[in-house]
Design a protein that fits this description.
about 45% helix; eight-stranded parallel sheet; two-stranded antiparallel ribbon; alpha/beta; about 325 residues; 14 helices; about 15% strand; binds flavin mononucleotide
């Protein structure tokens, strides 16, 4: 799949996720075959106020590519300025957030609120397209609620003003995350646009990815929550799509190694005091699924020091390896 001149191969993408898709997790996802990663959402308004956190969110690893920087906002001028800065930070593409359902965001008319404001949304996309040389994409939900499925019409307008791809999260704003995603919405957008379309929502297995591509006409799939503690999912999806067979899931050694690598990178970029508490959930995900692992997952909750986290992963590994030896 090509987005403008950017080759996205394989067309299996990591979803932008606040609090998750930071530099560490993007590096891990890339190493496991994600064809494109996108940063956490950066608020154009916060950038205009020179917020240090926003600049930090836009930082990319040296040589990180292809990578999108996602910006959020509804003021065309601020969004154009944010896009310009993101381009200067080295983004290969700019992604505009039109999906975020969080009240703090939508009350400013940002994120999924734009789905209810066709002319405002088109002005934002147009302003961003005109402010940068790199491709601009839009990640959106299907609409505000089930009485207002606006994505097909909006996507068509965005293509007309120069958007180079659309990613559709197949839920409405009012669904939040409660209902299963409805992939029909992806098909409805497909019928209206010729630019690449990326389907998103509840792709949890390689079979899901194949079914989404086959039933919706999407050109690529985007994976969010299923990558938590399982970045290998990108490789497994691609392998299955290409070969019709499954790659074996990672063993305890690979999982322990990945958990420690993730921890290391997080400590490098955020410092121990911030990184270790943030890694508690992530570590618990890496340690999931082996018999007896609940006890180790529970113990991630109190972690403060990197050395404690490392010791816990090692202890889990010794336990899990014994279990593996017992199974085989
Ligand atoms: C913790 C979390 C943070 C998210 N942050 C963002 C974000 O910053 N920008 C965005 O466009 N979507 C965000 N999303 C939505 C995801 O990109 C994705 O659309 C959604 O999780 C559905 O995909 P999934 O079923 O594969 O998880 C977030 C989702 C989660 C779970």
């Amino acid at each position: 799949m090509k987005i403008g001149e950017i080759l996205v191969d394989p067309p299996v993408l990591l979803a932008p996720m606040a609090g998750v898709s930071n530099r560490a997790f993007r590096a891990i996802s890339r190493s496991q075959g994600a064809g494109l990663c996108t940063t956490e959402m950066v608020s154009a308004n916060a950038l205009a106020h020179r917020s240090a956190k926003s600049y930090w969110l836009m930082e990319l690893d040296p040589g990180e590519s292809p990578v999108g920087i996602q910006i959020a906002g509804s003021d065309p001028e601020l969004m154009a300025e944010a896009a310009h800065q993101a381009e200067q930070h080295g983004a290969d593409l700019i992604d505009i957030n039109m999906g975020c359902p969080v009240p703090k965001v939508v009350k400013n008319g940002d994120g999924s609120a734009l789905l209810n404001d066709e002319e405002g949304a088109v002005r934002v996309v147009q302003a961003v397209v005109q402010s940068v040389k790199i491709p601009v994409t839009v990640k959106m939900r299907a609409g505000w609620d089930h009485d207002a499925i606006t994505a097909p019409q909006l996507a068509q307008r965005f293509e007309q003003v120069g958007a180079k791809a659309i990613a559709l999260h197949a839920r409405t704003r009012s669904d939040q995350y409660a209902k299963p995603a409805n992939w029909q919405f992806i098909r409805q957008v497909r019928e209206r646009i010729a630019i690449p379309l990326i389907g998103n929502g509840d792709v949890n297995t390689p079979e899901d990815a194949q079914r989404m591509l086959e039933t919706t006409g999407a050109d690529g799939v985007m994976v969010g929550r299923a990558s938590f503690g399982d970045p290998w999912i990108f490789r497994r999806i691609t392998y299955f799509l290409n070969n019709g067979r499954h790659l074996s899931p990672p063993d305890a050694q690979e999982r322990a190694h990945m958990a420690l690598w993730h921890l290391d990178r997080m400590v490098e970029i955020k410092g121990e005091a911030v990184a270790v508490p943030e890694m508690r959930k992530q570590l618990a995900w890496y340690l999931k699924g082996t018999p007896g692992s609940a006890e180790y997952r529970k113990r991630t909750q109190g972690l403060k020091l990197k050395s404690e986290a490392q010791a816990l992963v090692q202890e889990w590994f010794d336990h899990a390896r014994n279990e593996e030896l017992t199974w085989t």
